[in-house]
Amino acid sequence: MSISPRRLSALACLLLSACSAPSVTSPPATAAKVDLARYAGRWYEIARLPMPFQRAEDAAVAEYAANPDGTLAVHNIATRPDGTKQEIRGTATVLNAPQNTKLAVRFDTWFGPLIPVSEQGNYWILHVDAGYQHALVGTPNRRYLWLLSRTAKISPATDAALLAKARALGYDTTVLVRDPQL
């Protein structure tokens, strides 16, 4: 039995793509190291994977600040189309110092302590650019993903690069919810 050159080429491409694609059973790679002092501050949500606790029409920002005990204060603000705001505060604890890329976030609600956070954490910094202007954050199970920026708008080239990075890490970017502040 002989294989045609066309079929052999297609088979080779399929094998190569399977080898280069991340395994969705293994956790995604994180950034090499994050300087939390530079990461602190305001981040605008550019896009996110759908989640039950945030409406599609919400424009969201996240603010992070260093606490004296080495944790990060988290303040998430979602602005609804009618101008009302939904806010939640919490604390992020670094799980892999000194890389500072895997964090466990707990929110300050009556039910916050009841929600289990895996030992791996639930907030992984997957990518941050050298200038700390753009970031990708996700969960290790790939259910949640956020594209973040220091500004409410990003260039199409930056958007495409962040999406390509997220896809390479195994996240489904076909169902992303775009933040309405764009």
Describe the structure.
By secondary structure, the chain is α+β, with helices and mostly antiparallel strands. It has a single domain, classed as Calycin beta-barrel core domain (Lipocalin), CATH 2.40.128.20. The protein contains three helices and nine strands. The chain has an eight-stranded antiparallel beta barrel with strand order 1-2-3-4-5-6-7-8. The termini are far apart. 24% of the residues are buried. The N terminus is likely disordered.
CATH fold-level name: Lipocalin
CATH superfamily: Calycin beta-barrel core domain
Sheet/helix structural class = alpha+beta
Number of strands: 9
Distance between the termini: 56 Å
- Average pLDDT for all residues: 84
Classify the beta-strand content into a percent band: 25-35%
Helix and strand run: HHEEEEEEEEHE
Q: What's the architecture in CATH terms?
A: Beta Barrel
Percent range of helical residues: 10-25%
Looking at the chains present, what oligomeric state does this protein adopt?
single chain
Largest sheet: 8 strands, antiparallel, barrel
CATH class: Mainly Beta
Radius of gyration: 19 Å
Write a compact overview of the structure shown:
The chain is an alpha+beta fold and about 180 residues long. The protein contains three helices and nine strands.
Strand-helix topology:
Layout: H1 5-20, H2 36-39, E1 41-48, E2 59-66, E3 72-79, E4 85-94, E5 102-107, E6 123-128, E7 134-138, E8 145-149, H3 156-168, E9 177-178
Antiparallel strand pairs: 1-2, 1-8, 1-9, 2-3, 3-4, 4-5, 5-6, 6-7, 7-8
